[in-house]
Specification:
disordered N terminus
Amino acid sequence: MAGGQEGASLQGELQAARVTTRRILQLLDETLEPAAYSRLARLLFTGTNTVARLLREQRALEGDSAAFTRTVVSQALDQLSIEKGVQL
């Protein structure tokens, strides 16, 4: 598989992990039993680790790690800022 195709494949995985993580964050805003809150918190941690791992793998595939990291972090912060209504 060519490098560009791998990057496209990782982009889809990254998008899925981000959507799932956002959905877990939305669930954590609800009133929950302590056990359910604890399970969701663990899932959120796992999802965040998955996003970080995929970003590292994608960065390694793409080569220009510093510019790529700045772009991805900036996009993620902008999205969180919009979703949560908080200036980051």
